[in-house]
Amino acid sequence: MLPCGTFNETYAQDMAIVRTRLQWGLFIAVMVGVLTLPLYASGYIVSTTIATGVTLIAVLGLAIVTGYCGQFSLGQAGFIGVGAYTSAILMTRYNMPFLLAVPAAGFVSALVGLIFAVPSLRIKGFYLVMVTIGAHFIIIWTIVHLPKLTGGADGMVAPWASIGGFTFDSDIKYYYFVIPVVILMTFLAKNIGRTRAGRAFVAIRDNDLAAEVMGINLFSYKMLAFAMSAFYAGIAGALWGPFLGRISPEHFSNLVSVPLGAVWLLGMVIIGGTGSILGAVLGTLFLRVLQEIVSAMTPIVATQFPALERFAPATFGGILFGLAVIVFLIAEPRGLSHRWEIFKASYRLWPFSR
Amino acid sequence: MQQPETTRKSTLAVDNIFLSFGGIQALKGVSLEVGEKEIVAIIGPNGAGKTSLLNSINGFYRPQKGRIFFNGLEVTNLSSHRRAQLGLARTFQNIELYTGMTTLDNLMAARHIHMKYNFLWGALYFGKAHDEEIRHRRVVEDIIDFLEMEAIRKKVVGALPYGKRKLVELGRALALEPKLLLLDEPMAGMNTEEKEDMARFILDIYEEKGIPVVLIEHDMGVVMDIADKVVVLDFGEKIADGSSKEVKSNPRVIKAYLGEEEPAQTGTKV
Ligand SMILES: Nc1ncnc2c1ncn2[C@@H]1O[C@H](COP(=O)(O)OP(=O)(O)OP(=O)(O)O)[C@@H](O)[C@H]1O
Ligand SMILES: [Mg+2]
């Protein structure tokens, strides 16, 4: 349904993402707000926003393979690791410029993703989840057991990003590299979702047999979805390394205490609403805020209730995460993006929607 | 084996196929021909193998024996999606739509095989991706007009009433621009008005777009009205094949339906 007074005169208008003046206004306001953030926000907010942006890229990848294509994956953290290590190795050992190392990390990760995607033609549901968990184990195991290349369990330095002579050696500087990449990756994911490949993905998710009968090559498109998802993870990893400064296998584990753990990422897709890029954004924001609350409260809990100290922070975060997901699955299984649609519809029909 | 003489002219030729599931023989040596300009009805009691035959034609099931030709090309060993790309479209007995998508997107998804741009162009939504999206949107809108689905264009199909979902499924098959349309009980479970609409649409598809149709249908009234040829299956065997009149008076058909051998009375519903 369209807002009052808006009419589509061409299909191009009907198919545009940002259509009304209000939407343009909101869009521009958000863009300006995000791009000027370091001017007025604290260092903490800036670094948290970088971390959130990197997380969002990984979540977008998961939104493609799981949200659109319906192939559940718990391997995303592993592919982020592949990306982070690839770019760190290329930069430190082969002196590759950062600007090349980032896409290279995406492609290497996509390649690894393709290998683990092969079983997806035959295996579905829980079994596929097991395969992706296995993929994660194998990736981490490989990283630990290639110490010459990766530093093994001790990890390795992920150097500052630099382009030409300019080094992004502070959070504020790095912010202006990461955020445009996040915006670009979001834009690309949105377009993938609403065009040929995206429809093929959703067709496979909703009814794979019908999709095949309607001329969609299941194998190629499942492979493509996994590759895209791993590509996004790889880019996220390549951006995550310089932010951390030093990377080691535990940064890419699936523990609840790891902000990029696969369970958090999957939670972000689910809470946001599967099959929606806006959902990926909202879900990421929501759970990132939750993560920040957890880490801010952990020391308080520890001093107030010393008895609980040894459970924190992992248990505390895990409990809140579990609660959030359960509440969402009960109250709004279609996710935050669906809430937003309802809000939009009632706003447009106001005062008749009351 | 030589390619049967007749396959050159016919749109579809099914040649002596056998299909079994474990111990169940679903199809026992069934042959079938569909001409360029024909509406063929497949009838038969429940469990006769009608759906199995359709599933074999579009590659959903793989017969153990026999061959299938489509527009002169042997498709016996091709996957379903290859057969779709050659122009075989179908609907299902138990509606198989993309439930989470809108009517529009269900139809757009069926344009998949006609779109040429790859996902990189799609990601940029630029140049040929943008142009093709609009061009195919136009084709899809024509089908929406044709099937009078304007009101449900942007509705998510999972929430639509049964009759509408049947219609969307027909629309999705049409969006494939098929050279042959296979319909598995397109009117089952519909009320009279919906049935009449559906029959009209099928005839319009055939007459205006010139697409031959194979349909499975239990309603004999409908079959008599629209089919040029009727094929009768019983326990996996083809027991009759001819005009509706011929089939109606065929003693084997009467036996299969009524369970006894008796000459047909006028007006008997076969
Ligand atoms: N996938 C399958 N696995 C096992 N048996 C099957 C399968 N599909 C069909 N059959 C069996 O094959 C036979 C023919 O079934 P089919 O669905 O083709 O019948 P039909 O003529 O379409 O019947 P209806 O009018 O009830 O739709 C039945 O005995 C059925 O149980
Ligand atoms: Mg059937």
What do these coordinates show?
The complex is a heterodimer of chains A (354) and B (270). Chain A has 354 residues and is mainly alpha-helical. Chain A has helices at 11-15, 21-35, 37-40, 43-68, 76-93, 98-117, 125-144, 147-150, 171-194, 196-206, 208-213, 218-244, 262-272, 277-304, 314-331, 336-349, and strands spanning 156-157, 162-163, 166-167, 246-247. Chain A has a domain at 19-252. Helix content of chain A is 71%, strand content 2%. In chain A, helix 4 packs antiparallel against helix 12, helix 9 (171-194) crosses helix 10 and helix 10 (196-206) crosses helix 12. Chain A is globular and about 60 Å long. Chain B is an alpha/beta fold and 270 residues long. Chain B has two domains: 1-87 and 178-261, P-loop containing nucleotide triphosphate hydrolases (Rossmann fold), CATH 3.40.50; 103-177, no CATH class. In chain B, strand 9 (229-234) and strand 10 form a beta hairpin. The radius of gyration of chain B is 19 Å and the shape is globular. The model of chain B is unreliable at 261-270 (pLDDT under 50). Classes of the chains: A mainly alpha (354), B alpha/beta (270). Chain A binds chain B through residues 1, 10-12, 15, 188-189, 191-192, 194-200, 202-203, 205-207, 209-218, 224, 228, 275, and chain B through 58-60, 79-81, 84-85, 89-90, 92, 96-101, 105, 108-110, 112-113, 115, 117-119, 122-125, 129-130, 133-134, 137-138, 141, 154, 172, 176. Bound molecules: adenosine-5'-triphosphate and magnesium ion. Adenosine-5'-triphosphate binds at residues 21, 24, 26, 44, 46-52, 93 of chain B.
Describe what is shown at a glance.
Chain A is 71% helix and 2% strand. With 354 residues, chain A is mostly helical. In chain A, helix 4 packs across helix 13.
Please outline the major beta sheet of chain B.
6 strands, mixed
User: What is the beta-strand fraction of chain B?
Assistant: 15-25%
Rounded to an integer, what's the Rg of chain B over CA atoms? 19 Å
The largest contact between protein chains, plus residue counts on each side, is: A-B, 34 and 41 residues
What sort of overall outline of chain A do the alpha carbons produce when their principal axes are compared?
A: globular
**How much helix, percentage-wise, in residues of chain B?**
25-40%
Number of strands of chain A: 4
What is the level-2 CATH architecture name of the largest domain in chain B?
Answer: 3-Layer(aba) Sandwich
Beta strand % of chain A = under 5%
CATH topology (level 3) name of the largest domain in chain B: Rossmann fold
Count of helical regions of chain B: 10
Provide the gyration radius of chain A in Å.
21 Å
How many angstroms separate the termini of chain A? 17 Å
**Unreliable stretches of chain A:** none
Low-pLDDT stretches of chain B are 261-270
